[in-house]
Specification:
The chain is built from 8 helices and 8 strands. The chain has helices at residues 2-19, 86-96, 106-119, 153-162, 164-167, 172-176, 232-252, 267-272; strands at residues 41-43, 46-48, 62-66, 99-101, 139-151, 180-192, 198-210, 217-219. Strands 4-3-5-6-7-8 form a 6-stranded mixed beta sheet. A two-stranded antiparallel sheet has the order 1-2.
Length: 273
Protein backbone atom coordinates (compact mmCIF):
# COMPACT_ATOMS: atom_id res chain seq x y z
CA UNK A 1 0.00 0.00 0.00
CA UNK A 2 2.81 2.41 0.84
CA UNK A 3 4.48 1.63 -2.50
CA UNK A 4 1.22 2.34 -4.30
CA UNK A 5 0.96 5.71 -2.58
CA UNK A 6 4.49 6.63 -3.54
CA UNK A 7 3.87 5.48 -7.09
CA UNK A 8 0.78 7.70 -7.23
CA UNK A 9 2.87 10.68 -6.26
CA UNK A 10 5.42 9.81 -8.88
CA UNK A 11 2.69 9.43 -11.49
CA UNK A 12 1.33 12.85 -10.58
CA UNK A 13 4.78 14.27 -11.12
CA UNK A 14 4.87 12.69 -14.56
CA UNK A 15 1.55 14.34 -15.41
CA UNK A 16 2.85 17.65 -14.09
CA UNK A 17 5.94 17.42 -16.24
CA UNK A 18 3.92 16.40 -19.27
CA UNK A 19 1.57 19.35 -18.92
CA UNK A 20 4.48 21.73 -18.62
CA UNK A 21 3.41 23.09 -15.25
CA UNK A 22 6.66 24.78 -14.39
CA UNK A 23 5.45 27.46 -11.96
CA UNK A 24 7.55 26.19 -9.10
CA UNK A 25 6.63 29.01 -6.75
CA UNK A 26 2.88 28.82 -7.35
CA UNK A 27 0.61 27.40 -4.64
CA UNK A 28 -2.67 25.74 -5.48
CA UNK A 29 -4.99 23.33 -3.69
CA UNK A 30 -6.88 20.45 -5.21
CA UNK A 31 -9.90 19.90 -2.99
CA UNK A 32 -10.61 16.19 -2.69
CA UNK A 33 -13.45 13.96 -1.55
CA UNK A 34 -16.02 16.74 -1.54
CA UNK A 35 -13.90 19.07 0.59
CA UNK A 36 -14.94 22.70 0.73
CA UNK A 37 -13.33 25.89 1.95
CA UNK A 38 -13.97 27.77 5.19
CA UNK A 39 -15.33 30.99 3.78
CA UNK A 40 -18.31 33.26 4.08
CA UNK A 41 -19.57 35.11 7.12
CA UNK A 42 -21.41 34.67 10.40
CA UNK A 43 -23.80 37.00 12.16
CA UNK A 44 -27.40 37.64 13.19
CA UNK A 45 -28.64 36.09 9.95
CA UNK A 46 -26.69 32.91 10.57
CA UNK A 47 -23.90 31.44 8.45
CA UNK A 48 -23.58 32.71 4.91
CA UNK A 49 -21.61 30.69 2.33
CA UNK A 50 -20.15 28.53 5.09
CA UNK A 51 -18.45 25.20 4.56
CA UNK A 52 -20.69 22.36 3.46
CA UNK A 53 -18.75 20.13 5.84
CA UNK A 54 -19.32 22.33 8.89
CA UNK A 55 -21.37 20.57 11.60
CA UNK A 56 -23.97 22.90 13.11
CA UNK A 57 -26.22 23.26 16.17
CA UNK A 58 -29.93 24.01 16.08
CA UNK A 59 -29.50 26.76 18.69
CA UNK A 60 -26.64 28.26 20.74
CA UNK A 61 -25.92 26.68 24.11
CA UNK A 62 -23.84 29.44 25.72
CA UNK A 63 -21.73 32.54 25.24
CA UNK A 64 -18.15 31.73 24.32
CA UNK A 65 -14.77 33.43 24.51
CA UNK A 66 -11.67 32.25 22.66
CA UNK A 67 -8.42 32.13 24.60
CA UNK A 68 -4.93 32.11 23.15
CA UNK A 69 -2.99 28.97 24.00
CA UNK A 70 -0.49 29.98 26.73
CA UNK A 71 2.05 27.56 25.26
CA UNK A 72 1.81 29.05 21.78
CA UNK A 73 1.42 27.20 18.51
CA UNK A 74 3.92 24.85 16.85
CA UNK A 75 3.99 26.05 13.25
CA UNK A 76 7.69 26.28 12.54
CA UNK A 77 9.43 29.26 11.00
CA UNK A 78 9.56 30.42 7.43
CA UNK A 79 5.84 29.97 6.73
CA UNK A 80 3.69 32.97 5.85
CA UNK A 81 1.01 32.17 8.42
CA UNK A 82 -1.00 34.33 10.82
CA UNK A 83 0.40 34.45 14.33
CA UNK A 84 -2.73 32.91 15.84
CA UNK A 85 -5.53 30.58 14.65
CA UNK A 86 -8.04 32.15 17.08
CA UNK A 87 -9.81 34.31 14.43
CA UNK A 88 -10.33 31.21 12.29
CA UNK A 89 -11.80 29.24 15.21
CA UNK A 90 -14.03 32.21 16.09
CA UNK A 91 -15.50 32.12 12.60
CA UNK A 92 -16.15 28.37 12.86
CA UNK A 93 -17.78 28.71 16.29
CA UNK A 94 -20.11 31.47 15.14
CA UNK A 95 -20.96 29.89 11.80
CA UNK A 96 -21.93 26.64 13.51
CA UNK A 97 -24.60 28.41 15.57
CA UNK A 98 -23.49 26.57 18.71
CA UNK A 99 -22.28 29.65 20.59
CA UNK A 100 -22.75 33.39 21.01
CA UNK A 101 -19.15 34.59 20.68
CA UNK A 102 -17.95 37.40 22.97
CA UNK A 103 -14.65 39.19 22.41
CA UNK A 104 -11.85 39.11 24.94
CA UNK A 105 -9.18 40.49 22.62
CA UNK A 106 -9.04 43.61 20.48
CA UNK A 107 -12.81 44.09 20.64
CA UNK A 108 -12.79 44.18 24.43
CA UNK A 109 -9.88 46.61 24.46
CA UNK A 110 -11.87 48.84 22.12
CA UNK A 111 -14.85 48.77 24.49
CA UNK A 112 -12.69 49.70 27.48
CA UNK A 113 -11.09 52.49 25.49
CA UNK A 114 -14.48 53.95 24.55
CA UNK A 115 -15.62 53.82 28.18
CA UNK A 116 -12.46 55.63 29.25
CA UNK A 117 -13.11 58.30 26.62
CA UNK A 118 -16.66 58.73 27.88
CA UNK A 119 -15.52 59.01 31.49
CA UNK A 120 -13.01 61.68 30.48
CA UNK A 121 -15.74 63.73 28.84
CA UNK A 122 -14.64 63.23 25.23
CA UNK A 123 -17.78 61.39 24.07
CA UNK A 124 -21.34 62.68 23.85
CA UNK A 125 -23.58 62.56 26.90
CA UNK A 126 -26.05 60.05 25.46
CA UNK A 127 -23.34 57.65 24.26
CA UNK A 128 -24.42 54.03 23.71
CA UNK A 129 -21.21 52.85 25.39
CA UNK A 130 -22.16 52.31 29.02
CA UNK A 131 -20.83 50.37 31.96
CA UNK A 132 -22.51 47.13 32.92
CA UNK A 133 -23.70 46.28 29.41
CA UNK A 134 -21.18 43.57 28.55
CA UNK A 135 -21.98 39.86 28.39
CA UNK A 136 -20.10 37.27 30.38
CA UNK A 137 -18.32 34.38 28.67
CA UNK A 138 -20.00 31.24 29.97
CA UNK A 139 -17.49 28.98 28.24
CA UNK A 140 -13.87 29.40 27.15
CA UNK A 141 -12.44 27.60 24.13
CA UNK A 142 -8.67 27.12 23.86
CA UNK A 143 -7.08 25.89 20.61
CA UNK A 144 -3.88 23.90 20.20
CA UNK A 145 -1.90 23.45 17.00
CA UNK A 146 1.09 21.42 15.82
CA UNK A 147 2.17 21.61 12.19
CA UNK A 148 4.89 19.39 10.73
CA UNK A 149 6.51 18.98 7.36
CA UNK A 150 8.46 15.95 6.17
CA UNK A 151 10.84 16.02 3.23
CA UNK A 152 10.00 12.91 1.21
CA UNK A 153 12.01 13.78 -1.88
CA UNK A 154 14.99 11.50 -1.34
CA UNK A 155 12.86 8.46 -0.69
CA UNK A 156 10.75 9.11 -3.77
CA UNK A 157 13.85 9.64 -5.89
CA UNK A 158 15.02 6.20 -4.85
CA UNK A 159 11.69 4.69 -5.85
CA UNK A 160 11.79 6.43 -9.23
CA UNK A 161 15.26 4.99 -9.83
CA UNK A 162 13.85 1.48 -9.30
CA UNK A 163 11.07 1.84 -11.89
CA UNK A 164 12.39 1.76 -15.48
CA UNK A 165 9.47 3.62 -17.06
CA UNK A 166 9.90 6.46 -14.58
CA UNK A 167 13.69 6.37 -14.44
CA UNK A 168 13.91 7.14 -18.15
CA UNK A 169 11.84 10.36 -17.91
CA UNK A 170 14.22 13.27 -18.13
CA UNK A 171 14.15 15.54 -15.09
CA UNK A 172 11.74 13.44 -13.05
CA UNK A 173 14.30 12.62 -10.37
CA UNK A 174 14.82 16.32 -9.80
CA UNK A 175 11.10 16.93 -9.52
CA UNK A 176 10.46 14.27 -6.90
CA UNK A 177 13.16 15.72 -4.66
CA UNK A 178 10.82 18.69 -4.07
CA UNK A 179 7.99 16.57 -2.65
CA UNK A 180 6.98 17.31 0.96
CA UNK A 181 4.38 15.74 3.24
CA UNK A 182 2.54 18.32 5.36
CA UNK A 183 0.41 17.47 8.39
CA UNK A 184 -1.46 19.46 11.05
CA UNK A 185 -2.72 18.20 14.41
CA UNK A 186 -5.18 20.40 16.30
CA UNK A 187 -7.16 20.31 19.53
CA UNK A 188 -10.01 22.35 21.01
CA UNK A 189 -10.60 22.40 24.79
CA UNK A 190 -13.93 23.70 26.10
CA UNK A 191 -14.17 24.81 29.76
CA UNK A 192 -17.15 25.95 31.82
CA UNK A 193 -16.27 29.31 33.40
CA UNK A 194 -18.78 28.77 36.22
CA UNK A 195 -17.31 25.50 37.44
CA UNK A 196 -13.84 25.50 35.76
CA UNK A 197 -14.64 22.00 34.50
CA UNK A 198 -13.45 20.96 31.07
CA UNK A 199 -16.75 19.84 29.57
CA UNK A 200 -15.58 18.84 26.10
CA UNK A 201 -12.42 18.30 24.07
CA UNK A 202 -11.73 17.31 20.50
CA UNK A 203 -8.82 16.73 18.17
CA UNK A 204 -8.52 17.20 14.44
CA UNK A 205 -6.03 16.37 11.73
CA UNK A 206 -5.33 17.00 8.07
CA UNK A 207 -2.50 16.07 5.75
CA UNK A 208 -1.45 16.71 2.19
CA UNK A 209 1.31 15.96 -0.27
CA UNK A 210 2.91 19.09 -1.72
CA UNK A 211 4.54 18.16 -5.01
CA UNK A 212 6.44 21.42 -5.06
CA UNK A 213 6.03 21.83 -8.83
CA UNK A 214 3.30 23.26 -10.96
CA UNK A 215 1.34 24.21 -7.87
CA UNK A 216 0.12 20.61 -7.56
CA UNK A 217 -1.09 19.28 -4.25
CA UNK A 218 -2.45 15.85 -3.50
CA UNK A 219 -4.55 14.97 -0.49
CA UNK A 220 -7.70 15.87 1.34
CA UNK A 221 -7.64 19.62 1.99
CA UNK A 222 -10.95 20.62 3.48
CA UNK A 223 -10.52 24.25 4.41
CA UNK A 224 -9.02 27.65 3.98
CA UNK A 225 -9.94 31.14 4.96
CA UNK A 226 -9.57 33.96 7.46
CA UNK A 227 -5.95 34.56 6.42
CA UNK A 228 -5.10 30.88 6.02
CA UNK A 229 -5.75 30.51 2.29
CA UNK A 230 -2.50 31.82 0.82
CA UNK A 231 -0.31 28.79 1.42
CA UNK A 232 -0.64 25.03 1.42
CA UNK A 233 0.49 25.03 5.05
CA UNK A 234 -2.34 27.36 6.01
CA UNK A 235 -4.92 25.31 4.16
CA UNK A 236 -3.87 22.12 5.93
CA UNK A 237 -4.05 23.84 9.33
CA UNK A 238 -7.48 25.29 8.57
CA UNK A 239 -8.73 21.87 7.49
CA UNK A 240 -7.49 20.36 10.76
CA UNK A 241 -9.36 22.98 12.80
CA UNK A 242 -12.51 22.32 10.81
CA UNK A 243 -12.13 18.64 11.67
CA UNK A 244 -11.60 19.38 15.38
CA UNK A 245 -14.55 21.76 15.46
CA UNK A 246 -16.87 19.19 13.92
CA UNK A 247 -15.77 16.62 16.49
CA UNK A 248 -16.37 19.13 19.30
CA UNK A 249 -19.89 20.00 18.13
CA UNK A 250 -21.00 16.39 18.55
CA UNK A 251 -20.26 16.81 22.29
CA UNK A 252 -21.62 20.35 22.55
CA UNK A 253 -25.03 19.25 21.24
CA UNK A 254 -25.50 17.21 24.44
CA UNK A 255 -24.89 20.17 26.79
CA UNK A 256 -27.77 21.86 28.59
CA UNK A 257 -28.18 25.39 27.24
CA UNK A 258 -27.32 28.17 29.68
CA UNK A 259 -29.32 31.36 30.21
CA UNK A 260 -28.39 33.49 27.22
CA UNK A 261 -28.48 37.28 26.81
CA UNK A 262 -31.04 38.79 24.44
CA UNK A 263 -30.34 38.16 20.75
CA UNK A 264 -28.61 40.78 18.64
CA UNK A 265 -31.10 43.39 17.51
CA UNK A 266 -31.83 43.31 13.78
CA UNK A 267 -34.00 45.44 11.51
CA UNK A 268 -36.64 42.71 11.33
CA UNK A 269 -36.78 42.39 15.12
CA UNK A 270 -37.04 46.16 15.57
CA UNK A 271 -39.89 46.33 13.07
CA UNK A 272 -41.93 43.88 15.12
CA UNK A 273 -41.54 45.89 18.30
Amino acid sequence: MRFQGIASVALALVVSAGLGLSGCGEKKTELGQGGSEITGSAGPLGANNGSRELVRCDAPVATLALAENPNGYVMGSGYQLPASPVPLVKLLAQQSGCFRVVDRGAGLRGTVQEQDLKNSGVLRENSTVRKGRGYEAQYTLTPSLTFSEQDAGRGLAGVVAMIPVLRDIAGLAGLVEQVKFKEAQTALLLSDNETTEQVAAATGAARTTDLGVGGMVLGRLGAAGAGWSNTNEGKVIAAAFLDAHNQLVHQVRALQAKDLPPPVATKAAQGKG
